[in-house]
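Why does residue order matter? Because the sequence determines the fold. Keep that principle in mind as you read this record.
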Amino acid sequence: MLNALFGKKATMPTADEALPGRAEAIPTADTHFISGRPLKSPVPEGMEEAMFGMGCFWGVERKFWQLDGTWLTMVGYSGGSTPNPTYHETCTGRTGQNEVVRVIYDPKVISYEDLLKVFWEGHDPTQGNRQGNDVGTQYRSGIYTYSDRQTEAAEESREVYAQRLKAAGYGPITTEIVPASPFYFAEDYHQQYLAKNPGGYCGVGGTGVSCPIGLKA
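Structure:
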Protein backbone atom coordinates (compact mmCIF):
# COMPACT_ATOMS: atom_id res chain seq x y z
CA MET A 1 0.00 0.00 0.00
CA LEU A 2 2.78 2.44 0.87
CA ASN A 3 4.52 1.87 -2.43
CA ALA A 4 1.27 2.47 -4.27
CA LEU A 5 0.74 5.73 -2.38
CA PHE A 6 4.26 7.08 -2.35
CA GLY A 7 5.98 5.35 -5.28
CA LYS A 8 9.75 5.55 -5.46
CA LYS A 9 10.01 7.44 -2.15
CA ALA A 10 9.44 4.10 -0.41
CA THR A 11 11.64 2.05 -2.75
CA MET A 12 15.44 2.00 -2.64
CA PRO A 13 16.94 3.20 -5.93
CA THR A 14 19.67 1.21 -7.62
CA ALA A 15 23.07 2.83 -8.07
CA ASP A 16 22.17 3.50 -11.71
CA GLU A 17 18.90 5.17 -10.70
CA ALA A 18 20.42 7.33 -7.97
CA LEU A 19 21.04 11.04 -8.39
CA PRO A 20 24.67 11.89 -9.26
CA GLY A 21 25.35 14.15 -6.29
CA ARG A 22 28.63 16.06 -6.24
CA ALA A 23 32.29 15.66 -5.38
CA GLU A 24 32.42 18.56 -2.94
CA ALA A 25 30.80 18.57 0.49
CA ILE A 26 27.79 20.82 0.98
CA PRO A 27 28.22 23.67 3.51
CA THR A 28 27.35 22.93 7.12
CA ALA A 29 27.88 24.36 10.60
CA ASP A 30 31.42 24.69 11.94
CA THR A 31 30.57 23.98 15.58
CA HIS A 32 27.98 22.15 17.66
CA PHE A 33 25.23 24.60 18.63
CA ILE A 34 25.14 23.38 22.25
CA SER A 35 28.72 22.42 23.14
CA GLY A 36 30.60 24.67 20.73
CA ARG A 37 32.90 21.80 19.77
CA PRO A 38 34.05 21.61 16.14
CA LEU A 39 31.72 19.32 14.21
CA LYS A 40 34.45 18.04 11.92
CA SER A 41 37.09 17.36 14.56
CA PRO A 42 38.72 13.89 14.60
CA VAL A 43 37.42 11.33 17.06
CA PRO A 44 39.40 12.07 20.27
CA GLU A 45 41.68 9.38 21.62
CA GLY A 46 39.80 6.97 23.86
CA MET A 47 36.40 7.80 22.35
CA GLU A 48 34.34 5.85 19.84
CA GLU A 49 31.75 6.59 17.17
CA ALA A 50 28.33 5.15 16.37
CA MET A 51 25.72 5.91 13.71
CA PHE A 52 21.97 5.36 13.68
CA GLY A 53 18.96 6.00 11.45
CA MET A 54 15.58 6.01 13.19
CA GLY A 55 13.38 8.55 11.45
CA CYS A 56 13.58 12.34 11.25
CA PHE A 57 17.10 13.16 12.38
CA TRP A 58 16.07 16.31 14.25
CA GLY A 59 14.43 14.37 17.08
CA VAL A 60 16.90 11.50 16.93
CA GLU A 61 19.89 13.78 17.45
CA ARG A 62 18.29 15.29 20.57
CA LYS A 63 17.88 11.83 22.10
CA PHE A 64 21.63 11.28 21.86
CA TRP A 65 23.05 14.70 22.72
CA GLN A 66 21.15 14.56 26.02
CA LEU A 67 23.02 11.45 27.18
CA ASP A 68 25.84 11.58 29.73
CA GLY A 69 28.95 10.37 27.93
CA THR A 70 28.06 11.81 24.54
CA TRP A 71 30.87 14.10 23.40
CA LEU A 72 29.47 15.21 20.04
CA THR A 73 26.49 14.59 17.76
CA MET A 74 25.88 15.56 14.15
CA VAL A 75 23.22 14.85 11.54
CA GLY A 76 23.73 13.84 7.96
CA TYR A 77 23.12 11.30 5.25
CA SER A 78 24.49 7.77 4.86
CA GLY A 79 23.67 4.31 3.58
CA GLY A 80 22.93 5.25 -0.04
CA SER A 81 24.54 5.86 -3.40
CA THR A 82 24.50 9.64 -4.01
CA PRO A 83 27.64 11.41 -2.71
CA ASN A 84 27.22 14.68 -0.79
CA PRO A 85 23.45 14.89 -1.26
CA THR A 86 21.34 17.87 -0.26
CA TYR A 87 18.29 17.56 1.96
CA HIS A 88 16.03 18.22 -1.03
CA GLU A 89 17.71 15.45 -3.03
CA THR A 90 17.45 13.01 -0.13
CA CYS A 91 13.74 13.75 0.24
CA THR A 92 13.10 12.73 -3.37
CA GLY A 93 13.93 9.13 -2.49
CA ARG A 94 16.44 9.02 -5.35
CA THR A 95 19.67 8.97 -3.34
CA GLY A 96 19.22 5.86 -1.20
CA GLN A 97 20.66 7.88 1.66
CA ASN A 98 19.18 7.65 5.13
CA GLU A 99 18.77 10.50 7.63
CA VAL A 100 21.31 9.52 10.27
CA VAL A 101 22.89 10.75 13.48
CA ARG A 102 26.59 10.20 14.11
CA VAL A 103 27.51 10.02 17.79
CA ILE A 104 30.96 10.45 19.32
CA TYR A 105 30.91 9.04 22.84
CA ASP A 106 33.12 8.13 25.76
CA PRO A 107 32.85 4.35 26.35
CA LYS A 108 34.13 4.83 29.90
CA VAL A 109 30.94 6.75 30.65
CA ILE A 110 28.35 5.22 28.33
CA SER A 111 28.54 1.87 26.55
CA TYR A 112 27.56 0.97 23.01
CA GLU A 113 24.87 -1.24 24.51
CA ASP A 114 23.45 1.83 26.27
CA LEU A 115 23.24 3.58 22.89
CA LEU A 116 21.50 0.55 21.41
CA LYS A 117 18.90 0.71 24.15
CA VAL A 118 18.17 4.35 23.24
CA PHE A 119 18.00 3.34 19.58
CA TRP A 120 15.52 0.50 20.02
CA GLU A 121 13.28 2.29 22.52
CA GLY A 122 13.37 5.62 20.69
CA HIS A 123 11.46 4.62 17.54
CA ASP A 124 9.36 1.84 15.99
CA PRO A 125 11.81 -0.48 14.18
CA THR A 126 9.02 -2.50 12.50
CA GLN A 127 7.75 0.11 10.04
CA GLY A 128 10.00 -0.42 7.02
CA ASN A 129 10.64 2.71 4.96
CA ARG A 130 8.80 5.07 7.23
CA GLN A 131 8.52 6.35 10.78
CA GLY A 132 5.05 7.45 11.74
CA ASN A 133 3.76 9.95 9.20
CA ASP A 134 7.23 10.38 7.68
CA VAL A 135 7.43 8.10 4.65
CA GLY A 136 10.44 7.34 2.47
CA THR A 137 13.66 5.35 2.41
CA GLN A 138 15.39 8.22 4.23
CA TYR A 139 13.35 7.38 7.35
CA ARG A 140 14.25 3.68 7.54
CA SER A 141 15.59 2.07 10.69
CA GLY A 142 19.30 1.35 10.55
CA ILE A 143 22.36 0.65 12.67
CA TYR A 144 25.62 1.44 10.89
CA THR A 145 28.57 -0.20 12.60
CA TYR A 146 32.24 0.71 12.87
CA SER A 147 33.61 -2.60 14.17
CA ASP A 148 32.87 -6.30 14.38
CA ARG A 149 32.10 -5.83 18.07
CA GLN A 150 29.44 -3.24 17.28
CA THR A 151 27.93 -5.51 14.63
CA GLU A 152 27.76 -8.43 17.04
CA ALA A 153 26.20 -6.30 19.78
CA ALA A 154 23.67 -4.79 17.36
CA GLU A 155 22.61 -8.14 15.92
CA GLU A 156 22.29 -9.75 19.33
CA SER A 157 20.24 -6.83 20.65
CA ARG A 158 17.98 -7.04 17.59
CA GLU A 159 17.29 -10.70 18.34
CA VAL A 160 16.45 -9.95 21.97
CA TYR A 161 14.27 -6.94 21.16
CA ALA A 162 12.43 -8.80 18.40
CA GLN A 163 11.21 -11.26 21.04
CA ARG A 164 10.00 -8.41 23.24
CA LEU A 165 8.19 -6.73 20.35
CA LYS A 166 6.55 -9.97 19.21
CA ALA A 167 5.25 -10.56 22.73
CA ALA A 168 3.75 -7.05 22.63
CA GLY A 169 1.98 -7.72 19.33
CA TYR A 170 4.36 -6.00 16.93
CA GLY A 171 5.53 -7.40 13.61
CA PRO A 172 9.09 -8.30 12.54
CA ILE A 173 11.93 -5.82 12.91
CA THR A 174 12.93 -4.18 9.62
CA THR A 175 16.13 -2.56 10.90
CA GLU A 176 19.18 -2.91 8.65
CA ILE A 177 22.50 -3.58 10.38
CA VAL A 178 25.41 -2.95 8.01
CA PRO A 179 28.95 -1.57 8.14
CA ALA A 180 28.99 2.22 8.14
CA SER A 181 29.33 3.81 4.72
CA PRO A 182 30.50 7.41 4.20
CA PHE A 183 28.78 10.03 6.35
CA TYR A 184 27.82 13.24 4.58
CA PHE A 185 27.01 16.26 6.74
CA ALA A 186 23.53 17.75 6.47
CA GLU A 187 23.09 21.46 5.99
CA ASP A 188 23.79 24.01 8.73
CA TYR A 189 20.16 24.52 9.76
CA HIS A 190 19.64 20.79 10.40
CA GLN A 191 22.45 20.54 12.96
CA GLN A 192 20.98 20.49 16.49
CA TYR A 193 17.72 21.72 14.95
CA LEU A 194 15.54 21.20 18.02
CA ALA A 195 17.95 23.18 20.21
CA LYS A 196 17.64 26.09 17.79
CA ASN A 197 13.88 25.53 17.36
CA PRO A 198 12.53 24.05 20.63
CA GLY A 199 8.97 23.87 19.33
CA GLY A 200 9.96 22.25 16.05
CA TYR A 201 8.31 19.17 14.60
CA CYS A 202 9.70 15.83 15.75
CA GLY A 203 8.00 12.76 14.31
CA VAL A 204 9.98 10.19 16.30
CA GLY A 205 8.23 7.98 18.83
CA GLY A 206 8.89 4.61 20.42
CA THR A 207 6.73 1.54 20.92
CA GLY A 208 6.71 1.66 24.69
CA VAL A 209 8.42 -1.74 24.77
CA SER A 210 11.57 -1.71 26.92
CA CYS A 211 14.85 -3.17 25.70
CA PRO A 212 17.33 -4.81 28.07
CA ILE A 213 20.76 -3.21 27.99
CA GLY A 214 22.61 -6.53 28.17
CA LEU A 215 22.97 -8.92 25.28
CA LYS A 216 20.96 -11.75 26.79
CA ALA A 217 17.19 -11.97 27.09
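The chain has a mean pLDDT of 93.
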